Amino acid sequence: PVIANLDEPGVRRYVRATITLAISLEWDPKKANELLEKKKPILNDWLTVYLASLGLDEVRGDANLRRLQQQILDTFNQKLFPDSKPKIKKILFREFAIQ
Fold it and tell me: Is the model's pTM score more than 0.90?
């Protein structure tokens, strides 16, 4: 899980998110695990900073969650496959809690 304080002045709010990556069937699972483990610190760092830049109104509701999923998907694919076809097909939230 990634935990980040939301950008809410005067109020302490945080989001806790756990995601699953749905990958292309063309991607060998063993190679996928190797690459993801190698890049996990970079992906976690980006996700933490990204979530911390958001306010409460940007993380609530169905439309905002779909937008977040798309932004995470696009960025992860860019970071992992800058010069090739994206292999992550979907971002799934296993947990997304705001407190």
Answer: yes
